[in-house]
TrEMBL record:
<dbReference type="InterPro" id="IPR000834">
    <property type="entry name" value="Peptidase_M14"/>
</dbReference>
<dbReference type="Pfam" id="PF00246">
    <property type="entry name" value="Peptidase_M14"/>
</dbReference>
<comment type="similarity">
    <text>Belongs to the peptidase M14 family.</text>
</comment>
<dbReference type="InterPro" id="IPR040626">
    <property type="entry name" value="Pepdidase_M14_N"/>
</dbReference>
<dbReference type="GO" id="GO:0008270">
    <property type="term" value="F:zinc ion binding"/>
</dbReference>
<dbReference type="InterPro" id="IPR050821">
    <property type="entry name" value="Cytosolic_carboxypeptidase"/>
</dbReference>
<protein>
    <submittedName>
        <fullName>Murein tripeptide amidase MpaA</fullName>
    </submittedName>
</protein>
<feature type="active site" description="Proton donor/acceptor">
    <location>
        <position position="333"/>
    </location>
</feature>
<dbReference type="GO" id="GO:0006508">
    <property type="term" value="P:proteolysis"/>
</dbReference>
<dbReference type="GO" id="GO:0004181">
    <property type="term" value="F:metallocarboxypeptidase activity"/>
</dbReference>
<dbReference type="Pfam" id="PF18027">
    <property type="entry name" value="Pepdidase_M14_N"/>
</dbReference>
<feature type="domain" description="Peptidase M14">
    <location>
        <begin position="111"/>
        <end position="372"/>
    </location>
</feature>
Length: 372
């Protein structure tokens, strides 16, 4: 049978270079109007019973090639369970081998979260009691920018995700967050809804998500460098969301992301903003410490360096939101690899574990919501 490689679907990304026997040579396609690339997502048909070796030849030119060592590619035959397969990186080539045991098998950088699943999530959550949906605007490709709100407490809490579309773990986290917040039998969630109003944007970058981008929108723009001066021409997604924040105010904010290199979950704060005070920063540090105590799926030892005083980049959302609203703002980073402090050799970091961390994040917030 002929082996077929295809990425012509929602969030797909790969280019076939050539097939020689059981070796498949591939390249990742760069984001439109951008040099960023690293996300891949493709399917293989016509290979049942064969052991194939896949080589991504341009992996060395990826945006974060230093993240490939120690990484394991994901595969699935049902698009529901995504397991890891042995993967190596050498001389700029990412290589993984798999015995194909089904008529169609999918491979991806991380478990995908398609725009169709996004719309299913919006449809499911918008019908839940007490949930309000708004379309804040449209993207450059004409897709809706979805926003959900629930709760009636005085604290204004924002969670927003997937500014970088290839970081699909971010929307798995948001799905878990929404499931807990709308669970009528969850006492913690119900208490939070009485003490806070939640504002949630599950996907900040629908265009990049559907196009199979790693980091940018339809204009090749990194949305997390647009928060100082967003425009309709370059970054309508940020303009709409920041505008809604201006209407509601922000007391607590979490921007949800994924990190290519660090094998752990961690938080980045807002050190270096012009208005930094130790009292303001202590609330962020307290949240991180409490989250680490709440779940083995989080830690505080590994993470990004802190910005020096006065050097924070205000084009990034966490810094802009902390400065603009005096909010307790933070960026959550989840791994493409695994959370090594609590490793899973079969699935590595996974959608199910994203949801566990989302639940723990809300449990932690509930313990300190009145202090924020």
């Amino acid at each position: 049978m002929t082996v077929h490689i295809n990425a012509g679907f929602d969030s797909g990304n790969i280019r076939l270079v050539g097939i020689e026997g059981d070796r498949i040579d591939l390249e990742i396609v760069a984001d439109h109007l951008s040099d960023f690339f690293q996300w891949f997502h493709f399917r293989v048909a016509g290979a049942k019973g064969r052991t194939l070796t896949f080589r991504i030849l341009n992996a060395g030119g990826a945006a974060y090639a230093f993240g490939w060592p120690g990484y394991r590619a994901r595969w699935s035959s049902d698009r529901g369970n995504w397991r890891t397969t042995e993967t190596s990186y050498a001389n700029g080539v990412l290589e993984f081998t798999r015995t194909i045991d089904s008529d169609v098998t999918w491979f991806a950088y991380f478990a995908p979260y398609s725009m169709e699943r996004h719309h299913d999530l919006i449809a499911r959550m918008a019908t839940q009691p007490g949930v309000m949906h708004l379309q804040l605007g449209t993207t450059l490709d004409g897709q809706p920018i979805d926003y959900l709100s629930l709760g009636n407490g005085p604290k204004q809490v924002w969670f927003y995700a997937r500014q970088h579309p290839g970081e699909t773990m971010a929307e798995w986290f948001m799905e878990g967050l929404l499931e807990k917040l709308t669970d009528a039998g969850d006492a913690t969630a119900q208490a939070l809804r009485e003490r806070a109003t939640f504002h949630l944007v599950p996907n900040m970058n629908p265009d990049g998500s559907r196009r199979g981008h790693l980091r940018t929108n339809a204009a090749g723009v990194n949305l997390n460098r647009e928060w100082h001066t967003p425009t309709l021409e370059r970054s309508p997604e940020v303009l709409c969301v920041r505008g809604r924040m201006d209407e509601t105010g922000v007391d607590f904010a979490m921007d949800v992301h994924g990190d290519e290199a660090i094998p752990a979950n961690f938080l980045a704060g807002f050190e270096g903003i012009p208005s930094w005070t130790d009292a303001h920063g202590k609330k962020f540090y307290d949240y991180a410490q409490r989250l680490a105590a709440q779940t083995p799926e989080f830690q505080t030892e590994l993470g990004y360096p802190k910005s020096a005083p006065g050097t924070a980049n205000l084009s990034m959302s966490t810094n802009q939101v902390a400065e603009r609203f005096s909010a307790v703002a933070m960026t959550l980073e989840m791994p493409f690899k695994d959370h090594d402090a609590n490793a899973d050799p079969e699935f590595a970091w996974s959608p199910a574990r994203c949801k566990v961390l989302a639940h723990a994040s809300l449990d932690t917030l509930a313990c300190m919501i009145d202090e924020i």
